[in-house]
Design a protein that fits this description.
This protein has five helices and seven strands, in the order βαβααββαβαββ. It is of the alpha/beta class. The strands form two sheets. A five-stranded parallel sheet has the order 1-5-2-3-4. A two-stranded antiparallel sheet has the order 6-7. The radius of gyration is 16 Å and the shape is globular.
Length: 171
């Protein structure tokens, strides 16, 4: 599986719960992008805080249709040193050697393993070169690996959202 990180990040580097600030820019185009992203994914990788937010919202949210059905039924790998159990349908805790477990997941056949939010986990994965990214001004902590990237696709929504799809450049 390919590990794909999807983050809501404002141009000035705000990386917080998107429900607190991104609402005015989320529209049908953004919804279509998130739907395609979810459809291209076989599983999710979540840190504890993101997992707790998702697990408290998605199972009881009404009117989510096929999107909500997939969110609630797809496999979810939850990284936490404090949770004793993950009760949301399809959830499995990852404890112990997190990086080794993520490496094993990446070796499995299938489509994308989707990492949403989960800033602490994101930075830990970057340091281990498990997400192929360069250095950023605010989202990426100092010491993040520098890796050349190729821009594969750009999407611009009418609301001003810009999606940049990047892949590691050939060695």
């Amino acid at each position: 599986m390919r590990l794909v990180a999807t983050e809501y990040l404002s141009l000035d580097g705000v990386f917080e719960e998107p429900g607190h600030w991104s609402g005015p820019w989320f529209n049908d185009e953004a919804g279509a992008f998130k739907w395609a992203e979810l459809q291209n994914s076989d599983a999710q990788l979540l840190g504890r805080k993101t997992y707790e937010g998702f697990a408290s919202a998605w199972p009881t949210m009404e009117g989510t249709g096929e999107f909500g059905e997939k969110m609630n039924t797809m496999p979810k790998y939850v990284v936490s040193s404090t949770l004793d159990k993950a009760e949301w349908t399809g959830s499995k805790l990852i404890k112990g050697n997190v990086m080794e477990e993520v490496r094993k997941l990446k070796l499995q056949p299938g489509r994308d393993l989707l990492l949403a939010g989960s800033g602490q986990l994101f930075n830990a994965l970057v340091k281990e070169n498990l997400i192929d990214v360069g250095r950023g001004m605010r989202l990426f902590e100092d010491g993040a690996a520098r890796r050349p990237l190729d821009l594969k696709e750009t999407k611009r929504f009418k609301s001003g959202i810009v999606i940049l799809e990047l892949e590691p450049a050939p060695a």
